[in-house]
Fold:
Amino acid sequence: MSLNESQPISSALCLLAFLSTPFGLRDARAEEENKKRQPNVVFILADDLGWSDLGCYGADYHESPCIDNLAREGILFRSAYAMPVCSPTRAAILTGKHAARLHMTIWSEGSRSGPRNRKLLQANSNHDLALEEITIAERLQSAGYLTAMIGKWHLGDAEHYPETQGFDVNIGGTHWGAPQTFFWPYNGDQRFGGFRYVPGLHFGQPGEYLTDRLTDEAVRVIERAGDRPFFLYLAHHAPHTPIEAKEADINYFRHKPTANSIHQNPEYAAMIKSLDESVGRVMECLEKNGVADETIVVFASDNGGYIGQDPFEGQPLTITSNAPLRSGKGSLYEGGIRVPLIIRASGAIKGAQCTQPVMVTDLYTTILTLCGLENAESLDGINLTPVLFDPETPLEPRALFFHYPHYYPTTTPVGAIRMGDYKLLEYFEDDRLELYDLAADLGESNNLAATHADLADRLRLRLSDWRQKIDAQMPTPNPDFSSKVK
Structure:
């Protein structure tokens, strides 16, 4: 019997079953089916992980088999963008709004004051994520989800902690951006000029490692969720400084040849190994609890890799390299803003890659859409769901904007726009323009601003219009600077 021939019989049987079922029971079953259709969400965010730090992105020394396997089970985005530093990206992910619109353009502590000996005074930046912002956690919490934040928060003081932004559970989340140490008891006052700790991680043991312990807590959330859908936001501190790892892992990489490797730091490689094992353990827990196929998994980094040396340890080795991308964390060159992004969802294409440019602001709309929530649109993001099921689906044409009106070792205050393959950087100290064709020059080595002046001017105007539209905060002239210049 053909499929078409069987349809009338099947339809009749379904109708008979429907009519013979009491309406109350039918409603209960429908409600139960709706619950089953609500997917869980696991969002794993790495801290300072560079675009080329993973095997699936071409790393030549680091090893990441579990994350590589996640990429084989989902979609790997090759042109995903974040903000150039941590707090702005975290705010953008949770709200679907650009950091410049939120007036959160530097990490929380950095918003308090900027350098006073430079040509410009840094722009104003909010220390806290405003309570009026509706986060993805609040949307999912109101839909019946158990919501848990494990790890790094870095979006404001105690009155703006995760519990105020839709999270039922907060383990480890504070206003600090990095731990004193990655080893239990995770506290001290040697590094940052004040005592720091990671709350909620009691009863550890000497030698316990922070990445492992945060994973333990994440696994407990999954196991304790029961039949309730859950949103797990596992925001690791790794591989942010301090560059500390388990000695056995460091020794493994010390003995691994590095003669022709772009990456050379065994301690940093060991931190990525622990991060990778965390992803593997989370996926194993989802499988063990029978919810892997109904769980959306997102893996990303908050900005490009940090290319300096550990300011406390003064290590002889540079922490990482973002090659073939230029520069790193803090800058608006590709090495500072292009990040790893992998999304795994039920029914999505497996093992595909998407080369179209996307932003972390897109994740808000995408996740809520996959969860079946209405009114999932965000001000600054688009829905990536069609790409998950067909990576060749063209996204709507748009410009991507970046704004960092602050100083960092890799940059002076700067804004940027990417439109198609062209990217313009506008430096605010001297109004310098840099224009690059990313399709032909991924490393941003050939400045086309002079030879393509008309295009540069058009992009600059569009960037300026965008800043005005969203009320982006700008740096101001330093009245004391001229007297200090010889």
Notes: The domain at 401-484 is CATH 3.30.1120.10 (Arylsulfatase, C-terminal domain).
